[in-house]
Design brief:
By secondary structure, this protein is an alpha/beta fold. It has helices at 16-29, 41-50, 67-76, 95-104, 116-170, 175-224, 243-249, 253-256, 261-265, 281-288, 333-387, 391-421, 434-452, 471-487, 522-526, 537-543, 549-559; strands at residues 7-12, 33-38, 55-59, 85-89, 108-111, 228-233, 238-241, 292-300, 306-318, 321-331, 430-433, 455-460, 466-469, 493-503, 506-515, 563-569, 573-581. The chain has a five-stranded parallel sheet, with helices on both faces. A five-stranded antiparallel sheet has the order 7-6-10-9-8, sandwiched between helices. It has a five-stranded mixed sheet with strand order 12-14-15-17-16, covered by helices on one side.
């Protein structure tokens, strides 16, 4: 595309990633285009006051001032009201918001994820129209300047004639010589005027040639467009149709031009029932002059078969009156098939995942019974070996017992995770005192703490009181986090705090576990709560574990209506914060009867 001046495109989006993506996409496909970025509506308005902008790509969903408000401000200013605006949105996809965008004066309304080829083609089309307008204005300015010069010359000539006539009246004796001189001057003037007229005729011929060229370019654009394009008059009759539309519908142009489009390709719904012309969105666009975008209807081919389409009807206005419309459509058969395939694949994967979870839950139960027997018998044999004063046997049997308990803990984690995935995890809600529950947790972790040689500080508020929740699952959550803190902190310090707080007049219990251990990188934190995931693969080799503990902890916290947060820095330690409601009542909790015993579970 040849341009006399470069174009400036303003991209407005509060998301830096979106700004970068659009910037890169435009630079890649368009040459000689200046790109200006704004991260808010106010920023965009400041840029428009200073810089010359030819096209605006405007995100709808932004804080403080959204895209609709920004567009209204742009349209309210005389300097910027002519700039084309293309709305881009991922959230406001409904017809109501599209209509709102076009009522503000948008040139287009595109939804995310953006179809890159479509966006580039639209931008190119707008730039072509802007370039044509520039050329037209430039030619018009040149004509005005030329005509102004001619008028100034003519005016000067008239003044000269007045002076000459006064001189003739004052010098009657020299009238003949002066008349001859004037004839010579007039002859020259007429010659000059004739030359100017000839130039004007040539300019008009060139303008006619330019108009024909423009018409030809418009025709070529319609011919080469990949989407089907049909023109309609005010009665809904087809005035033109491009080759892409002909190929999709199977009609020849002469079979459609002059006929009401609706009765040729849009008179039936997908189920074969009659589609009244009065209910057709295309008719509505012709009736009220508003743009209609539809993505859930079908067009009918000449062969009698139908295909799903996505189409937009844009009214053609002349002096505020609707004189016709342009219908742009595309075949979305492949898109529909892909969506159906993805839905089936998703359902299949979910069914397979549920079957896996049920299998793991059943197998975990089968494995726990012999493991409990191994642990029990090892304890009995240790006692007997101690009575027989056989230290070697005691050592070997202790190793067996430790390994059995470790394996049982791993199976317990798998069992909990499987029950959560299979939808079998249940909470036993009851009211209990918080301090006694926390003391049981401290008793359980004390041996591990002494072995790790860590400094352990406990800070509990005296006003903790009671809470209505699942005490067993609360202890499981805290034991898991304290166990991790001990595991990854050697000869350091660990601080365990609990306090009662209120947020929006709702009581909560906040637990924090802070350590000075190895810490976690930002990349590792993003996948820390995923199942079967360790912060680092080296941690699995050095410290062991299934990688399920934190995933189970997070899901249990969510089931109890709470949240869990992590702050960590490599080499300096980590801090886990759990916020649980003092009265658990989230809508997704399975409530047990108070007399029902919780399912057996080893912590």
């Amino acid at each position: 595309m040849s341009r006399s001046d470069s174009f400036n495109i303003l991209i407005v989006d509060d998301n830096k990633n979106n700004l970068f993506t659009l910037h890169t996409l435009i630079e890649e496909h368009l040459d000689d285009v200046g790109i200006v970025e704004a991260d808010s509506g106010m920023h965009a308005l400041e840029i428009l006051l200073q810089d010359k902008i030819d096209l605006i790509l405007l995100d709808v969903q932004m804080p403080e001032m959204d895209g609709f408000e920004t567009a209204q401000m742009v349209r309210s200013r005389k300097k910027t009201q002519h700039i084309p605006i293309v709305f881009l949105t991922a959230a406001y996809k409904s017809e109501e918001f599209r209509q709102k965008g076009f009522s503000i004066g948008a040139a287009d309304y595109l939804t995310k994820p953006i179809d890159a080829p479509q966006l580039i083609n639209r931008i190119k089309s707008y730039l072509r129209f802007i370039e044509q307008e520039r050329q037209h204005n430039q030619e018009l300015e040149e004509r005005v300047q030329s005509r102004t010069a001619e008028l100034l010359t003519a005016n000067s000539q008239l003044q000269q004639e007045i002076i000459e006539r006064k001189q003739i009246e004052a010098q009657l004796q020299d009238i003949r010589n002066q008349l001859e001189h004037r004839i010579q001057e007039r002859t020259k003037e007429l010659s000059e005027t004739n030359r100017h007229l000839q130039e004007e005729i040539n300019e008009r011929k060139q303008a006619e040639i330019a108009l024909k060229k423009l018409s030809r370019q418009t025709h070529l654009i319609l011919e080469s467009a990949g989407e089907g394009i049909c023109g309609l008059d005010i009665e809904g009759k087809t005035t033109f149709i491009n080759p892409a539309a002909v190929a999709m519908l199977g009609y020849q142009p002469e079979e459609m031009v002059g006929k009401i489009q609706h009765y040729v390709m849009h008179d039936k719904r997908e189920d074969g029932s009659i589609y009244p012309f009065e209910e057709c969105p295309i008719y509505a666009a012709l009736h009220d002059g508003s743009v209609r975008r539809i993505d859930n209807e079908v067009f009918w081919r000449k062969s009698g078969t139908c295909f799903p389409v996505e189409y937009i009807t844009t009214p053609i206005l002349e002096e505020g009156e609707v004189i016709g419309a342009v219908v742009t459509f595309r075949d979305i058969t492949e898109q529909k098939e892909t969506e159906q395939f993805l839905t089936i694949a998703k359902e299949t994967a979910e069914a397979a995942n549920l079957a896996k979870s049920r299998f793991l839950a059943n197998m975990s139960h089968e494995l726990r019974t012999p493991l409990n027997a191994i642990i029990g018998y090892s304890e009995m044999l240790i006692e007997q070996a101690e009575d027989l004063e056989e230290p070697d046997l005691v050592h070997d049997l202790s190793n067996i017992q430790v390994a059995g308990k470790h394996l049982l803990n791993l199976i317990n984690d798998i069992l909990d995770f499987s029950k959560i995935e299979a939808g079998k995890m249940q909470l036993s809600l009851h009211e209990f005192e918080i301090l006694p529950a926390l003391e049981m947790v401290l008793i359980s972790v004390r041996p591990q703490m002494e072995k790790a040689k860590d400094n352990f500080d406990v800070i509990f508020d005296e006003s903790l009181g009671s809470m209505y929740s699942d005490s067993v699952r609360l202890q499981q959550i805290l034991l898991n986090l304290l166990g991790n803190a001990i595991k990854f902190t050697q000869s350091g310090s660990i601080v365990f705090t609990a306090q009662r707080i209120e947020q929006e007049n709702i009581p909560y219990i906040r637990f924090t576990i802070t350590d000075t251990g190895i810490g976690i990188t930002q990349e590792q934190q993003r996948r820390l709560f995923q199942p079967f995931t360790q912060a680092d693969t080296s941690a699995t080799r050095k410290y062991g574990g299934t990688g399920l503990g934190l995933s189970i902890t997070k899901q249990l916290v969510n089931m109890m209506g709470g949240t869990i947060q992590l702050q960590s820095e490599v080499g300096k330690g980590s801090c886990f914060t759990i916020l649980l409601p003092a009265n658990a009542n989230p809508p997704h909790i399975y409530f047990r009867h108070p007399n029902t015993q919780p399912e057996e579970h080893e912590l």
